[in-house]
Amino acid sequence: MVQAxxxxxxxxxxxxxxxxxMSDNTRQFRWIVYIKxxxxxxxxxxxxxxxxxxxxxxxxxxxxxTRQAPDAMVVFGRPKGDRGSYRQWEEGDVAxxxxxxxxxxxxxxxxxxxxxxxxxxFGVEEYYLYDPDRFDLAGFVRRDDRLDPVDAMQxxxxxxxxxxxxxxxxxxxxLVRPDSLPFESYQAVARRAEAERLQTQMAQQETQMxxxxxxxxxxxxxxxxxxAEELTRRLQEMGLEP
Length: 242
Fold this sequence. Notes:
242 residues, alpha+beta, tt1808, chain A, six-stranded mixed β-sheet, two-stranded parallel ribbon, 3 helices, Uma2, Nuclease_put_TT1808, Glr1007 protein, Restrct_endonuc-II-like
């Protein structure tokens, strides 16, 4: 008796969430936002660079178990836009070229080793890790089929991003754009925006005051001219020449 082979026609589901939190604490979250928003700012005018934070990346079609969600990733050659996940086969088979991870106390050595092997296996060109608790910065760059460690990260410039890496004296991560502008925290951007708003408001008020003073001066001149004309008329009525 020949048994018929049953083939499932149900489509493979690729969840948009792995059930894990974006961050374990406020410090880790702050640095993830610092990196991701800085990358967004860096490539804001380039429509062919996709930047994402904590987005699930599925590199293999039909396999929803092989996946990672980098804290931040940059994909050159892919358009901007919203995505529930990054399914590589739907993105021209372009793998993220640069990924970032911000460590938390809950991260283990085996876990981070598995991530390194994942990124190495699936084509990541640059992989950077920052530990805000231990003030440690590490980087890996692809050479042939391996992600080799960067010998010295202080002053290192990313080949893909053009961003310079450094640690400040207090251990904070410092990222500097190719145009020498540093990445900024949301608070710093908000403070500068508020200062610019107040400066613009003051300039507008000064312009308005100057306009009002000019209008008042013009009105005074018109009144003076009318008085002079009235005085001339009265003198002429009296038979006098002004």
